[in-house]
C-alpha cells in the first residue's frame, strides 16, 4: 500500500522558530489565520477590495530595495526560515466546519490552501530584511513538485501541525519542504510531505528578482540541499521527455497497439474486413472518453491573493475536488488521495475570470486511479481560452476499479491525443509509485 511509508526528513531539533517568539508549546504556535494576516502585512495588501488597487500602486516604490545581484544579499541558513504552524481542529472546534467533509474527515482541498499560504510565508521569512517591514519581493507559487500522503484519513477533531523551511535556493527561486503531522494520544504522527517551488519577482510581479542564497550547516542539511538540486534536474528531464516534445517510446507504442488489438470487434466476416472504427469494450473496462468530468468556477474577489490575483491554493482546491469527484464516479467507491505531483502554474488567473476545469481519468491499475485536471480561463470578450494549470492526482479507491481504455486509433497519426493522455497518465502513475 502507498500508505506504508511517509519519509519525514527531519531537520535538527534546533530548527525551532515560530512566528511568535518564546515557547514551543502548540498552544503558543500561530494558526493559519495568523499566517495569512502576516502575509498581508509583509506585502502591504489591503483586506478591503476597494483599497487593494491603491495598495498595489504603493508597492511600486519598493523597487529601490531590490538587490542588483544575489551576491549583495546576506546568505541564510535552513533554520532561519523554519516555521511551525498549528491548525487547532481539536482544541478549537469552532473552525472544524470549514474543514469537514461528508465522510467526517478533513477536506484535503483545504489542506492544499494552507500548504500554499505557508510555503509563501516560509519564503518571505527566508528573504526578510530586518530593517524593512514590507518586502519588495512578490513571491508566488511556481510549481507543486510533489505531495505524498501516508495516512488515508485526516481526522477532523485532532490538532494538526505544519512545519517547513526553505530547502534549496537558486538565483530567483526557492524550494520549500513542508510536513504535516496530526496529534494522536499525545504525539504528533506524520500525515504528508510536500515539496513546493516558489519564485521571487519584483514588487509589481513582472520580472524575476534575486533571493538570499542558502548555506547548509550540517551533513544532513547538505543532503537536503543536494536533493533540491536533484529535484531541479529531474524536473528538467521530465519536461524534456514530455510527450509534447518527444514521441512515445517503442514500448509505449506497443502498449497502445495492444490495447487497440484487444478492443477490435472481430465478429465481422474475415480479418481483412475488420474496421478501425468497429470497437468493443473489454470486460471490467470503461472508455476514456466516458471517464471525464467538467466544472466551471466564477473567480470572485473573495478568492484573491495578496497580489490581487486568484489564490493558487483556491485553484488547487477546486481542481482537487473535481479530480476526486471524477475518480469517485469512475471507480464507483470512495477514493483516497495518495499523491499530488507536477502542478505547474503557467499563468495567473485574474479576478472575474471564468475558470473552466476538465477532469480526465487517464490511467487505472488495481485500486489506483490517475486523474488529470486541465484548468483554463475563458475570456467572454475575445472568446479565447488560455491554459493556466494542469494538475495530476493519484487516488486509491476502496474497491478495484475498471480499466480505462483509449478508444480512438488510426487517422493521420498512429497514436492520437487520447492515447497520449493515457500514456502520460501511466508515466505519472509510475513516477508516483516509484516515489512512495
TrEMBL record:
GO terms for cellular component: mitochondrion. Its main location: mitochondrion. Pfam families: 4HBT (PF03061). It comes from the Eukaryota. The keyword Transit peptide applies. Keywords: Hydrolase, Mitochondrion, Repeat, Serine esterase, Transit peptide. CDD domains: BFIT_BACH. The keyword Chaperone does not apply. Residues 81-204, 289-401 form the HotDog ACOT-type domain. This is ACOT9 thioesterase. GO terms for biological process: acyl-CoA metabolic process. One of its GO terms (molecular function) is carboxylic ester hydrolase activity. Belongs to the acyl coenzyme A hydrolase family. It is found in: Mitochondrion.
Amino acid at each position: 500500500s502507498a500508505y506504508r511509508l511517509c519519509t519525514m526528513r527531519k531537520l535538527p531539533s534546533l530548527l525551532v522558530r515560530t512566528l511568535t517568539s518564546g515557547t514551543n508549546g502548540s498552544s503558543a504556535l500561530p494558526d493559519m489565520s495568523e499566517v495569512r494576516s502576516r502575509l498581508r502585512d509583509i506585502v502591504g495588501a489591503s483586506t478591503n477590495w476597494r483599497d487593494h488597487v491603491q495598495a498595489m500602486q504603493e508597492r511600486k516604490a519598493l523597487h529601490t530595495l531590490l538587490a542588483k545581484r544575489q551576491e549583495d544579499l546576506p546568505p541564510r541558513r535552513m533554520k532561519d526560515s523554519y516555521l511551525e504552524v498549528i491548525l487547532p481542529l481539536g482544541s478549537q472546534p469552532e473552525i472544524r466546519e470549514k474543514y469537514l467533509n461528508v465522510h467526517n474527515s478533513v477536506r484535503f482541498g483545504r489542506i492544499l490552501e494552507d500548504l500554499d499560504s505557508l510555503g509563501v510565508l516560509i519564503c518571505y521569512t527566508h528573504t526578510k530584511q530586518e530593517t524593512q517591514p514590507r518586502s519588495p519581493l512578490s513571491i508566488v507559487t511556481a510549481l507543486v513538485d510533489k505531495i505524498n500522503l501516508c495516512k488515508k484519513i485526516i481526522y477532523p477533531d485532532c490538532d494538526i501541525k505544519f512545519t517547513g523551511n526553505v530547502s534549496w535556493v537558486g538565483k530567483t527561486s526557492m524550494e520549500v519542504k513542508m510536513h504535516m503531522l496530526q496529534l494522536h494520544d499525545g504525539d504528533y504522527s506524520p500525515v504528508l510531505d510536500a515539496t513546493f517551488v516558489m519564485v521571487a519577482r519584483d514588487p509589481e510581479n513582472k520580472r524575476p528578482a534575486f533571493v538570499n542564497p542558502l548555506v547548509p550547516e550540517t551533513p544532513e542539511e547538505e543532503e537536503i540541499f543536494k536533493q533540491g538540486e536533484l529535484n531541479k534536474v529531474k524536473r528538467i528531464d521530465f519536461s524534456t521527455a514530455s510527450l509534447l516534445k518527444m514521441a512515445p517510446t517503442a514500448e509505449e507504442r506497443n502498449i497502445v497497439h495492444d490495447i487497440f488489438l484487444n478492443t477490435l470487434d472481430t465478429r465481422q466476416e474475415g480479418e481483412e474486413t475488420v474496421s478501425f472504427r468497429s470497437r468493443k469494450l473489454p470486460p471490467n473496462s470503461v472508455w476514456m472518453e466516458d471517464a471525464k468530468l467538467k466544472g466551471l468556477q466564477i473567480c470572485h474577489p473573495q478568492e484573491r491573493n495578496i497580489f490581487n490575483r486568484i489564490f493558487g491554493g483556491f485553484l488547487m482546491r477546486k481542481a482537487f475536488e473535481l479530480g476526486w469527484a471524477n475518480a469517485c464516479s469512475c471507480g464507483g467507491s470512495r477514493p483516497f488521495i495518495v499523491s499530488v505531483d507536477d502542478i505547474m502554474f503557467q499563468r495567473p488567473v485574474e479576478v472575474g475570470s471564468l475558470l473552466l476545469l476538465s477532469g480526465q481519468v487517464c490511467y487505472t491499475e488495481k485500486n489506483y486511479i490517475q486523474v488529470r485536471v486541465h484548468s483554463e480561463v475563458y475570456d467572454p470578450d475575445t472568446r479565447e481560452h488560455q491554459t493556466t494549470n494542469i494538475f495530476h492526482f493519484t487516488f486509491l479507491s476502496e474497491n478495484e476499479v475498471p480499466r480505462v481504455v483509449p478508444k480512438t486509433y488510426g487517422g493521420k497519426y498512429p497514436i492520437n491525443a487520447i492515447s497520449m493522455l493515457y500514456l502520460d497518465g501511466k508515466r505519472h502513475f509510475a513516477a508516483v509509485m516509484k516515489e512512495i
